[in-house]
Design brief:
A four-stranded parallel beta sheet has the order 2-1-3-4, with helices on one face. The longest helix has 21 residues, at 105-125. The chain has helices at residues 94-97, 105-125, 142-146, and strands spanning 39-43, 66-70, 87-91, 130-133. The protein is an alpha/beta fold.
Length: 147
């Protein structure tokens, strides 16, 4: 079983499934000490330059293993992408605010509610994850920066 699959499948023998006798189950698994820092970044185009890997100059380096997933808007966040990671950084939302449908503070509240829902879905899929939500970055549109 992989670390990711353990969030979805339970390894057990149901009562009554085994006849008489003893059953031994041995699982071999190598857990790297680096896994405590495993991180997924779910973000829009502003996260495009972030790289995971072992190169100390071009990436976060070996001490921060992980992956980056592209989600230009909140509705594109897939909660299952955070499965198997210790940390999840969410960095999107500016594209939702740029939508022509956003005209009032109530519209922004609805976007915030969708954000909260996605965080709850991520935590339901991976109950051990630490979710970090980055604030929406300023944009070229001065009107959006005031809200």
């Amino acid at each position: 079983m992989t670390r990711k699959s353990q969030d979805f499948y339970k390894h057990c023998i149901m009562p009554g499934d085994m006849g008489s006798g003893k059953r031994y189950s041995i699982t071999f698994r190598s857990v790297s000490s680096l896994n405590r820092n495993s991180t997924c970044i779910i973000g829009d185009s502003n996260t495009g330059g972030l790289r995971f890997g072992t190169d100390r100059i071009e990436s976060f380096g070996k001490w921060l293993p992980g992956a980056r997933f592209y989600a230009p808007v909140i509705d594109n966040i897939d909660p299952y992408e955070a499965s198997g990671y210790k940390n999840c950084v969410i960095h999107c939302g500016v594209n939702d605010l740029k939508s022509a449908e956003v005209k009032t503070a109530a519209d922004i509240d609805r976007i915030f509610d969708r954000y909260v829902s996605k965080v709850q879905q991520i935590q339901a899929v991976n109950r051990h994850v630490h979710v970090f939500v980055c604030p929406v970055l300023p944009t070229k549109l001065a009107e959006l920066n005031r809200t």
